[in-house]
Specification:
Elements (H helix, E strand, L loop, with lengths): L6 E6 L4 H10 L8 E5 L9 H8 L3 E3 L5 E2 L4 E4 L5 E5 L3 E5 L11 H12 L3 E5 L8 H9 L3 E5 L8 H9 L4 E3 L1 H12 L1
Parallel strand pairs: 1-2, 1-8, 2-5, 3-5, 8-9, 9-10
Antiparallel strand pairs: 4-7, 6-7
Helix pairs in contact: 1-6, 3-4, 4-5
């Protein structure tokens, strides 16, 4: 019997943009849970990124406000230069605490926060990227019983992020980008 997930969290950095676009475009089915996107990006560029993701996405993509209530079927993109956390009461919290792994938003921090809140009902994906941010967060997700998917390093434009994760954990799935989309569809429908 399939798990009933309560949230999806996807992280990436360099080389993940096209895969994120493909994943968002694949959500042609009714998505009854929120999607959290934690992507490294330029901190001074405040516009254009959400709009470009919305062009192909089948669900609405937005940057949340601090203390915003999470709604199903929406993709929440961590704003540039903010860490994104999750609180009981179905809220998103934003923070400008110091960078982690030279990054804000930090995949590790968001992944860990999501693991504490959603536990074994969390579906997580880590994609192409240039540093090891996200590996420790994926480890925490796994400890709480969440499902872990890592993009195959051979399929990544920049494999440091996925290799760093594979050095730390044995994920539930190691898949190329097309297979990630197939697996998400299978797990969520």
């Amino acid at each position: 019997m399939k798990k009933k997930y309560k949230a999806i969290i996807i992280g990436g950095s360099a080389g993940s943009y096209q895969v994120i676009n493909k994943i968002l475009a694949s959500f042609s089915y009714q998505l009854s849970i929120p999607v959290f996107l934690v992507l490294h990006r330029l901190k001074h560029v405040r516009s254009g990124f959400v709009e470009s993701l919305n062009l192909k996405s089948k669900i609405s993509v937005k940057e949340p406000f601090d203390k915003e209530t999470v709604k199903p079927g929406i993709a929440y993109l961590a704003p540039a230069n903010y860490h994104m956390y999750f609180d009981y009461g179905n809220k998103i919290t934003l923070s400008t605490e110091p960078m982690v792994n030279h990054s804000r938003p930090s995949l590790d921090l968001s992944f860990m926060a999501a693991a504490y809140i959603y536990q074994d009902k969390l579906l997580s994906v880590i994609l192409s990227g240039a540093n090891k941010d996200g590996a420790k967060g994926m480890e925490v997700i796994q400890k709480f019983g969440g499902t872990t998917i890592v993009q195959d390093p051979l399929d990544c434009q920049v494999p440091a992020m996925t290799k760093g994760t594979l050095d730390l954990i044995r994920p539930d799935y190691i898949l190329n980008s097309d297979r990630i989309i197939e697996k998400l569809k299978y797990l969520l429908t």
